[in-house]
Amino acid sequence: ASGVDLTQFRRWYDQAGTPVVDATGSYDAGRRRYTLTLRQTCPPTPGQPDKLPFHIPVAVGLLDASGRDMPLQLEGESSPAAGTRVLSFTKAEQAYTFVNVPQVPLPSLLRGFSAPVNLRYDYGETGLAMLMAHDSDAFNRWEASQRLALDLMLRGIGAVRAGQQPVFPESFVEAFRRTLQNAKEDPAFAAEALGLPSEAYVAEQMDVVDADAIHAVRVGLRKHLAASLSTELLSAYRIFATSGDYSPDAASAGRRSLRNLCLGYLMELDDGAIRSLCLKQFVSAGNMTDAMAALTAFANTDCVERATVLEKFYAKWKDEPLVVDKWFAVQAASRLPGTLGEVKKLMQHPAFTIKNPNRARSVIGSFCSGNHVRFHAADGSGYAFAADQVIALDALNPQVAARLARSFDRWRKFEPARQQHSRSALERIRATAALSKDTMEVVTKALAGQQAAA
What we know:
Elements lengths: L10 H4 L5 E9 L4 E9 L14 E8 L21 E5 L3 E7 L6 E4 L8 E3 L3 H11 L3 H24 L8 H12 L5 H7 L5 H6 L6 H18 L1 H10 L10 H17 L5 H13 L3 H12 L5 H13 L3 H12 L6 H8 L10 H14 L1 H4 L5 H14 L3 H8 L10 H15 L6 H17 L1
Parallel strand pairs: 1-7
Antiparallel strand pairs: 1-2, 2-5, 3-4, 3-6
Helix pairs in contact: 2-3, 2-4, 3-7, 5-9, 8-9, 9-11, 10-11, 11-13, 12-13, 13-15, 17-18, 17-19, 18-20, 19-20
């Protein structure tokens, strides 16, 4: 119907693996031409050592120095067209030349996530900040914000491990500020773009994981943004307040999401006025989203209001099991240093029973799978606790126990001391008499993977 030959496109269904697209660009100022070169590869997979080129649709835009889209005219075309062009990338390597390009452009590639590939292009800090602040494509603005934040955190982690202080450039703060200033266009998007990559995601990008350095740098970046943009964050918090009765519509949900993100950043500041603002939201919240946002902020803050807020929340919702699960989970995931001790106390709470799978997941699972820095404590206490709970749960619910044991899946990525703690915990689980097949399979595979790696 479209007149397009999709024979090559069928390779997406016939070939396994995710293609990697390497992109480079060159500008000829004298001829006002910009050439974008794309190269595609796909890693070997079982039974398919060599892959043929995929048909990859690459949506492209070119930004000028002000961040505006340039008109796009490919070589051979009679006139330019505005906006985004979709290039049909079908060979191992192809070059696309744009003419009448008045200045060095910044390419915006794979707009709208036009193809499920891994893109590699050396934007650098300046390029990513420009895309984050100005790109007309929402997906690429989000992608740029995440890549830039990740790059800054990885660099900061390297600095911390070398005994230095991480440095966060002003360009990132300014891009963050611009996104916040333009949030009225789409508050839900702004809330997504201004969130930082999680500690677990950052860990996945590292060859050897340092949980303490990841946590220190991520919290440090949050504090830096909060201090640099406190006025803008507080203004946005007030502007995006919703009035009237609670509404579940998308626009209202987006405003709540951005407002609560701003509150989370502001709570990074040691400021009594901000804590009073958070407490006011907690007391007056007309919906669970706002109440949980305030509760989470207090759960992660060492302040006098914390205990009172937690007690009041439980007293109000103690007869609602699903809400009580949230109350347990937010405490188990707290980043505060004494969280493991608090988790053990929560397991003695009258409302907790390990025999209830939801309750076990809300406390034990939230700590082991959702609290990266405390679960991976350097002294191995988090691993020992997890092993104790896997063994206890296995006798009651092998499926829940096996899922909890998956918390050790990435243990080989840590430094030798943490690996030793993890190995001891896994071996202790494996040595348990009458261990279920489900849990034994998870633990055995984890240990076998270590032996293979060694």
